[in-house]
Amino acid sequence: MSRKISYSKALLEAQDYLLKTYKEVYVMGLGVPDPKGIFGTTLGLQEKYGSERVFDIPLSENAMTGVALGSAISGMRPILTHQRVDFALVAMEQMVNQAAKWHFMFGGKMKAPMVIRMIIGRGWGQGPQHSQVLHNWFAHIPGLKVVMPVSPRDAKGMLISAVNDENPVIFLEHRWLYDLEDYVEESSFSVELDTCNLLRKGKDITLIGVSYSVVDCLEADKTLREIGINSDVIDLKSIRPLDMKTIISSVKKTGNVIIVDSGHVFSGISAEISASIYEELHGVLKKPPKRIGLPDYPTPTSTSLSDGYYPVKGDIIRATFEILDIKDKIFENENLNRRLDQPNKFFEGPF
Amino acid sequence: MMLKQLYLDMLRIRMIEQSIAERYNEQEMRCPVHLSIGQEAPAVGVCAALTKTDRAFSGHRSHAHYLAKGGNLASMLAEIYGKETGCSKGRGGSMHLCDLDAGFVGATPIVGSTVPIAVGAALSIKLKKEEAISVIFLGDGAMETGVVQESLNFASIRKIPVLFVCENNLYSVYSPLSVRQPINRSLCDIAAAHGIKTFLTKENDVEDIYTKSKKARQLILNKQQPVFIEIPTYRWLEHCGPNFDNDIGYRTQEEYIEKREADLLEKYIETLEIKELNKITSKIEDEIKIAFKFAKSSSFPNSKSAGDFVYA
Question: What is the domain range of residue A153?
């Protein structure tokens, strides 16, 4: 049976199912059993499964990543959670040097099935060290899988797949997605980690979104349809491995593409995708691909500075007009009646 | 455990390491080697106190630990030669040894980095309620890394069945302990400050190391708590490679001679009858000869398989 639940509830259901079903699964992270339970995603799990399997950790992100790895190669299936990606940067050493290579460097003798959940912050003054979007770093490392589910259904299904996967999976959750509601089956199910979703179909242009940018792409698509422009909207839920097959077949059809990343444009996945499209579809492309993402400076904190920092629906629409050479229509930014550092006017921080 | 067996195990490891040093200049072992000559006692003393199902981890200087834990010699040499028959199929080399049958889970050369992994293996032992411990060999340099402090802290608060074996050989590459750590603080002090029971052994004394390791293992199993052992020791050769390097000026020849004269293995060998010693050494030499023959005659991995094992 399917019912409407939030992204955070979907993640909670996935972990509840995993802990109930597999004795090898355990959940750890700073704040996992606290009253807020990682934005509600771990609430009640310690009460249900005990403090041996669901526990708080010291502020030792690097060692705890090593602990997760050591247990994973010994038959456990850990889920390690960090409340911000930024906090886990001290653990790059264990993620990159060890977890990503443990299977490889011992000639395939051991496997490292572990999931590292990390949260991307945005808005409400999160600033330079609470809102970095770094999937591009992880995607650079062979041996890691990197996923960024957007819909509540994918959140649940992909977390179940990630825990069942035999490799280290970097599982990136956008803070603004937690309250998003959609239909999700009550029963357990898995969603594959190596494909992207074609969410809308259209012949004019391909819009590829990464993480929260998918929400912006869908909003832009809705407005564009009203004036007769139809897009293929792709939710790039897996960054590594990258499903170029779906992307290529879409761009082959539309001949135009805009890639909207939630992270920096420079040296990011949008460059990788653009290059691959060029290599495959040089003669097919009608216009060069366009890339939209964060500007080349750290996240500013002040409301007035951050309003212009994040790309919004209007930027995607304007880029679409440029590519399709539409000059007789001007997109006016709607009066949103809110600052852009909130996903909606009900969002009040503080974290 | 007979003391004699401990010394013979040390002698075997020393002879193996010497045989690598002797052949290294043939340029066929194309990877860095960090030889354990002079540091056999900690490896043998600790591993003699372990069972096969206990898991061991190590760092860059891991040959002695691998061998003392029962790691296969031929697979180790084949790995150093980069062969498909190597313990890591030529993907790792000297710095990435592994023999799961012997309970030697793995060694990797980022200093301190395998320490939390060994703690994680111990966490899994605890969660599965197995009758075993996890052992991590680290050095004085690793004690300066944040991740080791984090690991000691976590092992202490969660009562993890792990044995930290800290070999203090006084140098990290060419940097002496005195420029790296306060002179009036011991390595045991650091572990003790994390609430961990500590033992300090006599310098390079395999009997004392064995006795204390045995006690430590019992304590870990009975009380479900981590233990830390500091073992003063000394490497004879250069940090990395087959040569002596006392001449380059980071340590004195006098210090080296003093340490070498105190070497208990050489003293023990002197007590053996020549005939018996010859019998022992020729048996080890045969084993080494066969292992090298295996390593050298094994095939290299197929170059087309270079991208294997990225994902399981």
Answer: 2-185
CATH classification at residue A37: 3.40.50.970
| Number of domains into which chain A is organized | 2
Cis geometry, peptide bond prior to residue A58 (ω within 30 degrees of 0):
no
Q: What is the pLDDT of residues A12-37, one digit of tens each?
A: 999 999 999 999 999 999 999 999 99
Do residues A170 and A223 both lie within one domain?
no
pLDDT of residue B197: 98
β-pairing, B55-58 vs A290-294, is unpaired
User: Using alpha carbons only, how large is chain A's radius of gyration in Å?
Assistant: 20
Q: Tell me whether residue A264 is one of the annotated catalytic residues.
A: no
Structure tokens at A97: 């040097």
Distance from CA of B70 to the nearest CA of A (A): 17
pLDDT value at position A336?
54
Q: Tell me, yes or no, if B157 comes closer than 8 A to chain A by beta carbon.
A: yes
Instruction: Point out the catalytic residue in the list A130, A135, A174, A264.
Output: A130
Whether A191 is in a domain gets the answer: no
Q: What is the mean pLDDT of chain A?
A: 95
pLDDT means per 10 residues, chain B with 312 residues, are 94 98 97 97 98 98 98 98 98 98 98 98 97 98 98 98 98 96 96 98 98 98 97 97 94 96 96 97 98 98 97 98
Reported as a single tens digit per residue, the pLDDT across B124-152 is 999 999 999 999 999 999 999 999 999 99
Residue ending a domain, choose from A153, A185, A217 = A185
Looking up tokens 């997109």 gives A331
Q: Is the dihedral of CA B93, B97, B100, B105 positive or negative?
A: negative
Q: Are A168 and A114 in contact (CB under 8 A)?
A: yes
Structure tokens at A283: 């003669």
Residues A56 and A153 in one domain: yes
ipTM value > 0.85: yes
Bridge partner list, B50: none
Nearest to B116 among A70, A103, A110 (CB): A70
- Does one domain contain both A229 and A172? no
Query: Are A163 and A265 in a shared domain?
Result: no
> Is A61 known to be catalytic?
yes
Residue A333's pLDDT band (cuts 50, 70, 90): low
| Domains of chain B and CATH, by start | 3-288 (3.40.50.970)
Nearest chain A CA: its distance from B291 CA (Å): 20
